[in-house]
Amino acid sequence: MRAGERGQYITIKEKTVSGQDSRGADEYTWTDVVSVWASIRPMSGREMEAAHQIWAEARFRFFIEPYVDGIQRDMVITWGTRTLNILDVEDPSGMRKELHGYAKELVA
After folding, report:
1. Contact (Cβ atoms closer than 8 angstroms) between residue 48 and residue 80
2. C-alpha to C-alpha distances, 44 to 38, 49, 82, nearest whole angstrom
3. Where are the domains of the chain?
């Protein structure tokens, strides 16, 4: 990925237990893990068809370079006013140079 392609500034967040309600159920908040420049784009055509074989709800691909350790499926991306649920992340080369992933938009 070339530097010019990382046009979106995103924040990756993880869910943390912040306490318990009056009935003892855990309450959660989203805590910032890292903010980075990335490329996020909607999928279309064959790319979406291939992704739907595994993640029926996948709608976006994201690319982060350089590699960021610790990003997982149960995290979210905040991107402007949008929130994307991370469905999967991968290190395509296995050399910890970049991350690729799939995400879906959370709709309130």
Report:
1. no
2. 19, 8, 19
3. 3-19+28-105
pLDDT digits (tens, 9 = 90+) for 10-42: 999 999 999 999 999 999 999 999 999 999 988
- What pLDDT, on a 0 to 100 scale, did the predictor assign at position 52? 57
Q: Rounded to an integer, what distance in angstroms lies between the CA atom of residue 19 and that of residue 10?
A: 27
How far apart CA 52 and CA 60 sit, in angstroms, is 11
- Domain 3-19+28-105 class? mainly beta
**CA–CA distance, 20 with 35 (Å, rounded to integer):** 28
Kind and range of the H or E element at 45?
Answer: helix 45-51
Q: What is the pTM of this model?
A: 0.78
CB–CB of 4/28 below 8 Å? Answer: no
Eight-state DSSP code of residue 55: -
- Kind and range of the H or E element at 98? none
